[in-house]
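To assess whether ligand presence alters the predicted conformation, the chain was also submitted together with zinc ion. Input:
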Amino acid sequence: MAWIVQPLEKCGSDGLGIGIFHLTAKSDEGGPLYVGCDHDHASADDAQACQEARRKIGGITGFPDGYDEKRRVDSASDDRTANNAVRHSYRVLSDAEKAQMVAIKDKGAEFLNLIDSLRTPPEPAGEANGEPFAICTFDRELTIAAEKVEEAVMWAVKHITA
Ligand SMILES: [Zn+2]
């Protein structure tokens, strides 16, 4: 069983968001949705930052560590350990997590090099303005394959740093 802890926006009877956010917790095995506080938080970030909500949710899930300020550093600080365009704070990675991230990236680089080695070499095609030039073949399949490898690395790293 895992807990899904996230800020959610309240909906009106029409099903549309009404601009009020609460930090919530729900088990992935079903059961009630627990709401962290009664405040009318104006944004998901606000709701996520609410100390009262974090305390209450921590008490329900038994994982107060997940919201321990000491494990998070400000995105503006030099201490940040990972880049993420969406998150506003970054968890400090453990040594094991750092090693996992490096392993994933190394495997990805190895795979990308292998794909690159399959590319059609440029073909010399004479001279233009006194400079030799070559014709390159656009290997579409390999470009797609390389993009998918980059995507796989990105998702795996996202899991490790989540
Ligand atoms: Zn609150």
